[in-house]
Design a protein that fits this description.
The protein has helices spanning 4-30, 33-40, 68-82, 103-113, 126-129, 135-141, 165-168, 174-182, 196-207, 237-244, 283-287; strands spanning 48-53, 60-62, 65-66, 91-93, 120-122, 146-150, 153-157, 215-219, 250-254, 262-265, 268-272, 313-320, 323-330, 336-341, 346-349. The chain is an alpha/beta fold. It has two domains: 15-44, no CATH class; 47-354, 4-Layer Sandwich (Purple Acid Phosphatase, chain A, domain 2), CATH 3.60.21. The strands form three sheets. Strands 5-4-1-12-13-14-15 form a seven-stranded mixed β-sheet, with helices on one face. A six-stranded mixed β-sheet has the order 6-7-8-9-11-10, with no helix packed on it. Strands 2-3 form a two-stranded antiparallel ribbon. Bound molecules: fe (ii) ion (FE2) (2 copies). One fe (ii) ion binds next to helix 5.
Length: 365
C-alpha cells in the first residue's frame, strides 16, 4: 500500500515512462534496422544498464532533524531508480552522502538508500571521509577501494580524496579538519590524491586484465586537473592515467563537481555526474577570465535559484560494447545524452552539441 505521495510519484513516473516508451517505439518504427538493433540492444553480453546517484550532502541539524531539501533530492533519485525499466544491474553511489561525515548523516543516508531495490556500489567522497578518516564508512559500506567484473567490463572503485599526511595531522580536532576540507574555495584545504599505496594496488589489479577489456573507473574527484582553488583536482592524476593508458577502452566516472562536465585525454573518457543536492557554477563564472572548463564540455544552464531542484539530478548509464552512453536525468528539464563517438574518439552531447540546438542560458535580474 503506497502513501499518497508515493502514489503520486508512481503515477507521475508511469506516465513519464509510458510517454518515453511510446516516443521510443514511434522513433524505432521510422529508424533503419541497424539503429533499431543498437537502441534495443544487440544481445551482446556487454550491453547493460546501471544508475548513478551522487553528492546528496545530507546535513544533520539536531536530533532527528536534517536539511529537508537535500533529503528530498536523494529520496527523489531513489524513487525514480526503483521505477526504472528495464531494471539497472546495480546503482553506484558516487560519494558525499554526508555533509560533515557524521554518523547521523551516514546512517540517515543508508536508511534512504536502503529503499533501493537494486544492489549498491559505494564510492567515498571527502565529506564522508575527513571526520574519522573513513572508519565508519568502511564499517558500514565496506572497502574504500575495490574492483569487480560485470558482463565483460572491469570496474575499479578508487578512493581519490586522500591527501598529504602533514595536512591531516595539522588540525586541533577531527571536526576542524572536516570543516576545512568541506568548504569549496578554502585556501586552507589540500589537494586530493589517490596516493602511492593505492596506485600500486591499481597496478596489480590491472595486471590481471586484458588490454582489450573495457575498463570503467569510478572515483569521487575527477582523475584530471580542472581548477585547483576549488579542488576540482587530483594531484597524482597523471600517474593514475599512465596506469590506464595501455587499455583500449577506458571511462572514468566521477562526482564532486556537481555539474555536467566531460573530457577526453588520450584513451580516457571522463564524465562527471550531477548532484542531487545543489549545482556548482562552472569555474569560468567565478574567475571571469581563462576558461577552466574542458574544451569538449557543453556547459549546462546556470541554475535557477528560485527552483530548488534545478540543475540537479542523477544518471542512467548504458554500457554498449564497452562504451558508456550517459543519460543525465535533469529534473523538470530535458535529459541530456552524452554518447561516445567512435569515429571522433571522444564523447559528444547528442542533444545539445549543435549550437543552434542549445537552450540559451537563463538570465537573472
Ligand atoms: Fe559534493
Ligand atoms: Fe566532494
Amino acid at each position: 500500500m503506497c502513501n499518497p505521495k508515493e502514489e503520486f510519484m508512481k503515477n507521475k513516473m508511469n506516465r513519464r515512462s509510458f510517454l518515453k516508451r511510446s516516443a521510443v517505439a514511434a522513433a524505432a518504427a521510422t529508424l533503419p534496422l541497424s539503429l533499431v538493433e543498437f537502441s534495443w540492444g544487440s544481445g551482446d553480453s556487454r550491453n547493460f544498464t546501471f544508475a548513478y546517484i551522487s553528492d546528496s550532502h545530507l546535513t544533520h541539524v539536531k536530533g532527528a532533524q536534517f536539511v529537508r531539501n537535500f533529503d528530498k533530492g536523494l529520496k527523489k533519485a531513489v524513487t525514480e531508480c526503483n521505477f526504472m525499466s528495464p531494471k539497472p544491474d546495480f546503482v553506484v553511489y558516487g560519494g558525499d552522502l554526508a555533509q560533515l561525515g557524521k554518523r547521523e548523516e551516514l546512517d540517515h543516508g543508508l536508511e534512504i538508500m536502503s529503499r533501493l531495490r537494486h544492489p549498491v556500489k559505494w564510492v567515498i567522497g571527502e565529506h564522508d571521509y575527513y571526520l574519522d578518516l573513513g572508519k565508519y564508512w568502511q564499517e558500514k559500506m565496506g572497502s574504500l577501494h575495490y574492483s569487480f567484473d560485470h558482463k565483460g567490463v572491469h570496474f575499479v572503485v578508487l578512493n581519490s580524496i586522500l591527501t598529504y599526511d602533514a595536512w591531516i595531522g595539522k588540525w586541533k580536532s577531527p571536526e576542524e579538519r572536516m570543516s576545512n576540507m568541506a568548504r569549496l574555495d578554502n585556501p586552507n584545504g589540500s589537494p586530493f590524491m589517490v596516493g602511492q599505496k593505492q596506485r600500486e594496488w591499481l597496478k596489480r589489479d590491472l595486471a590481471k586484465v586484458s588490454k582489450k577489456s573495457p575498463i570503467v573507473v569510478m572515483s569521487h574527484s575527477p582523475l584530471y586537473k580542472i581548477f585547483k582553488p576549488w579542488n576540482f583536482w587530483t594531484d597524482d592524476a597523471e600517474k593514475v592515467q599512465a596506469l590506464l593508458k595501455p587499455f583500449q577502452k577506458v571511462t572514468v566516472l566521477h562526482g564532486h563537481v556537481h555539474q555536467i562536465l566531460y573530457n577526453q585525454i588520450g584513451n580516457i573518457t571522463f564524465e562527471a555526474m550531477m548532484s542531487t543536492s545543489w549545482p556548482w557554477p562552472y569555474p569560468v563564472s567565478y574567475i571571469k577570465k581563462a576558461n577552466q572548463v574542458p574544451r569538449l564540455t557543453v556547459m549546462m544552464n546556470r541554475a535557477d535559484p528560485f527552483h530548488e531542484r534545478d540543475a540537479t539530478g542523477w544518471s542512467v548509464l548504458n554500457l554498449d560494447d564497452g562504451r558508456v552512453t550517459n543519460h543525465y536525468k535533469l529534473w523538470e528539464n530535458k535529459d541530456r545524452v552524452l554518447k561516445y563517438d567512435k569515429r571522433l574518439g571522444y564523447p559528444i552531447d547528442v542533444e545539445y552539441q549543435a549550437p543552434a540546438k542549445r537552450i540559451p542560458p537563463q538570465e537573472h535580474y
